[in-house]
Amino acid sequence: IRDVKCAFKILPYVEKVKPEIIFSNSNDRPQSGMHYLSKYMNNFPPVVSIFHVPVMSEKMARKLKAKMSNSFEAVAVSEGVLQSYESAGVIRPGQGRTIYNPACAPNIDELAKIEPDHPWFSDGGPPVILGAGRLEPEKDFSTLIDAFRRLRASRPCRLVILGEGSLRSELEARIASLGLDDCVSLPGWVENPFSFMARSALFVLSSVYEGFGLVLVEALASGCPVVSTDCPAGPSEILEDPALLAPVGDPEALAQVMMRALDRPADKAALRASAARFSVERAIDGYETLIADVLAERDRPKQASGA
After folding, report:
1. Do both 272 and 293 map to the same domain?
2. CA-CA 20 to 30 A from 201: which of 5, 53, 85, 131?
3. What pLDDT was estimated at residue 185?
4. Cβ-contact 229, 246 below 8 angstroms
């Protein structure tokens, strides 16, 4: 519910159902409609904000400060996101907590067994490096393509980037200008990326920023080695190894990180185990604890006044 008009439309439902907590996912507005109602209505349920991206500018921080003035508590999807909100003064220390997005679903193993609909995974040719995400500026696939060109100069390999977006034509032109048409493929959005991940030699995330980096965990859960840019926020928490991280926007450094990862023997069991930290069960435990804490805090003044 992103604006006040929509909030008032849903208000009869809130009054009928009487939820004990409302979660707000709106990151891009100064105040969501629910926050507005919580400010001006008595006995309105506590509003918990969920933040998915780090604070990227002072302007963004100012808008979010207004929103959080009426928020009971905040949840961040990574420690980096939480720290960015605290550092910018959007939330007070102790007002927020981290609950990682769940990524390690129980059916990934079954989905990974399905053969991908792409000839490069069954033709016995050079290994495939994989990227995935929206073809938009923040994913910076241009840097990945440039890094791949450098890597390919020293070893045979191919690159597949899954996803769709506004930069498709620009990326295709870049691939053609570098003479990489025969070894870079943009097959578009696929329903089952896990089948691609399970058969790739390496997964690469080249983003300028992330909130968490869900796709990294999905690749690990598929038994695929991963590397990433050291972007805010999430990848460094997931990978926990500086040798697997490259500076943002540096194709030469990213190519070196990719080369080192390809030279490592892949321990698929260890990769899957590292992804298990981000299970659905752990996320559920985190939110159950959060809900209990918020309700206890909500009721504390009433208990004190009745003593």
Report:
1. no
2. 53
3. 98
4. yes
Span 265-305, pLDDT tens digits: 889 999 999 998 898 899 999 999 999 999 998 887 654 44
Residue 124 sits in the same domain as residue 273: yes
Non-local (6+) Cβ contacts of 56 within 8 A are 209
Host domain of residue 163:
108-277
> Which residues contact residue 208 at a Cβ distance below 8 angstroms, ignoring those fewer than 6 apart?
137, 138, 139, 140, 229, 231, 248, 249
In total, the chain counts a number of residues equal to: 307
Question: By three-state DSSP, how is residue 171 classified?
Answer: helix
Please identify which residue in the block is written with the tokens 């409302």: 22
Clarify whether residues 168 and 210 are in a common domain. Answer: yes
pLDDT tens for 123-145 read 999 999 999 999 999 999 999 99
Which pLDDT tens digit goes with each residue over 215-224?
A: 999 999 999 9
State the burial class of residue 43 (Cβ atoms within 10 Å of its Cβ: 0-12, 13-18, 19+): exposed
Written as six digits, the tokens of 201 are: 């030699």
CA angle at residue 285 from 284 to 286, to 5 degrees? 90
Neighbours of 169 (CB within 10 A): 9
CATH number for the domain spanning 40: value is 3.40.50.2000
- Asked if omega into 7 is within 30° of 0 (cis), the reply is no
Contact 46, 22 (CB under 8 A): yes
Do both 48 and 74 map to the same domain?
A: yes
Average pLDDT (34-59) is 80
